Amino acid sequence: MALAQCNTRRHAVRDRALVQFSILAGLRACELAALTVGAVYDDIGAPRTSVLLHRAQTKGNSARRVYFNTELQRLLKQYRSHVADRASDAPLFATRFGTAFSANTMSQLFLDIYHSCGLHGCSSHSGRKTFITRLADKGVAVHLLAALAGHKHISTTQRYISVNEALLTRAVELV
Question: pLDDT tens track of the chain, all 175 residues?
């Protein structure tokens, strides 16, 4: 629903890529805002398989590596034409003025996207929560989820995991 709504927006390509990036990599708004073209694409314009977020770019003030799955790499190949004319230190996701988003303006953009399609209660963290929950649904161990999310404590990660009927049904089948 949110992706379809993005297609109707003024900056459809950027907004759609942001929502997908959020879901496929589980990044926070401040981390998405900090990404640069050169961090995500190599010198010949190919998407990297991962990116190192520096301490200043993360909420927890700890550097971490973020991995890009095949689907996100495919998305980045398509998005490359949208940023091909930008310098390597330019923001991957730019405002209408061509500048980097702040963490706050990035959060506001997510709220606007979700509200415009009637998804109230969603925020910039919704994609991150979806990322963690989907991996948990597929049986990824919580310590791996914590590492992917950049959490120091597993208890933090556990708060992101939505328990649902399908997950419970599959769990009892393991007995």
Answer: 666 665 566 777 888 899 999 999 999 899 999 999 999 999 999 999 999 988 778 777 788 899 999 999 999 999 999 999 999 999 999 999 999 999 999 999 999 888 888 778 888 888 889 999 899 888 898 999 998 988 888 888 888 887 778 778 888 888 8
Q: What is the number of other CB atoms lying within 10 angstroms of the CB of residue 163? A: 11
Give the helix, strand, coil percentages of the chain, each rounded to 5. 55, 10, 40
Query: What's 175's DSSP letter?
Result: -
In angstroms, the CA 38 to CA 139 distance is: 33
Distances (CA, A) of 137 to 10, 123, 130, 140: 35, 21, 10, 7
Single-letter code of the amino acid located at 164:
N
What DSSP string runs through 137-171?
Answer: HTT--HHHHHHHHT-SSHHHHHTTPPP-HHHHHHH
pTM of the model: 0.85
Query: What's phi and psi for 130, nearest 5 deg?
Result: -65, -45
Radius of gyration of the chain (CA): 16
